[in-house]
Write the structure tokens for this entry.
Amino acid sequence: MDVDVIPRLGAVIGVVVALVVLGLLLRWTFGSQKDERIPTDDPDDPVATGLLTEVSRVPGSEAARVLRDRLRDAGIRATISRPTDGGGFALLVFPADVADARVVLSRGALE
């Protein structure tokens, strides 16, 4: 009976070791990079909007949604941000879309 226990124990230990090694390899490959932080303080971007440029600022959230939807209907990617200075809601677009966004927004003001 003692002879049968040793191979079973060896197989169990082998499976446990294989699972631990596999877990460590997966953690090393797909693990989170919590120690690598994205820098948030950019001296060239005082309002911290990253790649986006402000094209308009409105006092209310509903007006901001209406303008954002107007830009999206024109095929311009836009988002809404609430600046930290409390000055309403900012409409943000990518720099390549600034001129088109201003044209679309000015057309809406003339109608």
